Amino acid sequence: MDGKELYGRELTRSECRSADEALLALTEKRPGLVSANGKLTCARCGNQERKKMQVAPCSCGAACQYCLSCLNMGKIKSCTILHHLPETNSFAWPQEPILQWKGQLSSEQNRASEEIVGTVLCEGTRLIWAVAGAGKTEMIFEGIAACLGKGGRVCLASPRVDVCLELAPRIKQAFPAVPLALLYGGKEEGYSYMPLVIATTHQLLRFREAFDLLIIDEIDSFPYHNDASLQFGAQKSRKKASALVYLTATPSVVMQNDIKRGKLEATVLPARYHGFALPEPECRWVGDWRKAINKKKTARFLTLIRRQLQKKRRFLLFLPHIQLMEELDGWLRELFPDKHFTCVSASDPDREEKVKRMRAEEYDFLMTTTILERGVTFRDIDVIVLGAEDRVFTEASLVQIAGRAGRHKDFPTGWVCFAHAGETKAIQGAVRQIRSMNRDAGRRGLLNGPVSVLPK
């Protein structure tokens, strides 16, 4: 390990790998657990909750306290020393042009892009509240280029590995001459010092005052939105003078209130880049679908699946729980032996390959948990949510899932069905939010035509 690999990082001794003692002697050091306002605090993740601190015998010979909040990133103990070298932005790459993307932004995308550039230059904070399929990734290109162009370091972070894997090739294609690091848990390649970083929000815990621009995609996504430690890590990874851009289609109520009170600058885009309305979900009562799966009884939801297969319309079938999905998978193989389909979840080691095969149109449909609710795009797809009343499907989750349909400019429409055993506030709220965005887009003259009438 050379000194560059510690620039803007904060690591334990074991994480410093092969660093020699001479290099470590040059680092800034601080205890892993410190006292802040009279409370024992984890310096890496900011945890102060006593119930998330534990005591155990330690190899140092004492009984050390350690942090449970960021334990999955390695143990931070009372005797832990964190090592850090200040960020120097020691990069070199061809100066012009940094951005090689040749596409064209819509007028709304261009407005957002210009406001992002302004935020970067004034080192401010901005929320980009854009409907699913608005083309958020393309909007951030000029902002990234503006930061890199002045010698800055950029990180694009997301709570989900799938989103990072989706973003990496698109960012690399737009900035082919800029070295890029992709960081997520379980990645085999080690860390290298790069000016452009794509990382899960967990990985930000290992950075300290590194980035001149931090962009967090899908901020409302699990686990970031309700994890104070991940939010602390994101703030810790930024330089004191830096820009912060949030991206989401479904901001929290807290963020929406901050916008209303003038505490947070926001750019709102209610329309997709291709100018077609968001598909408005059809809510269909399907009775006790769980019992039907368990007993392999005739079920109303099978009519929806048969219709899609007969029309040769590829679709995503979302379910709330892995066990139910696997049971349904077995039953559907008996009912439709000649059809090609599979299921994916967060625990599936072949998830990435299966998603690629779905994109290649090798499957008639793909069953999935909420792991594919965001960050993935298919060219021409419909969506069915089976068990939409389950508490797993929040309002934000349902809005994101509905946003999988109609994303591509060549296939800008799609059918979305919330199949349920009883409507919930989340279902009603999701439909209301989608309709509200369509109305706003229509009033502003951003739609190519009227909202499509849902099939009955």
UniProtKB/TrEMBL annotation:
Coiled-coil stretches: none
Residue span(s) of domain Helicase C-terminal: 297-451
Gene3D superfamilies cross-referenced by the UniProt entry: P-loop containing nucleotide triphosphate hydrolases
Superkingdom as given in the UniProt entry: Bacteria
Annotated keywords: ATP-binding, DNA-binding, Nucleotide-binding
Any one biological process term the GO annotation gives: DNA replication initiation
InterPro entries: Helicase/UvrB_N, Helicase_ATP-bd, Helicase_C-like, P-loop_NTPase
Pfam families on file: Helicase_C (PF00271), ResIII (PF04851)
GO molecular function, one term: hydrolase activity
Domain Helicase ATP-binding: 117-269
Residue ranges crossing the lipid bilayer per the database entry: none
Protein name stated in the entry: Dead/deah box helicase
Source lineage: Bacteria, Bacillati, Bacillota, Bacilli, Lactobacillales
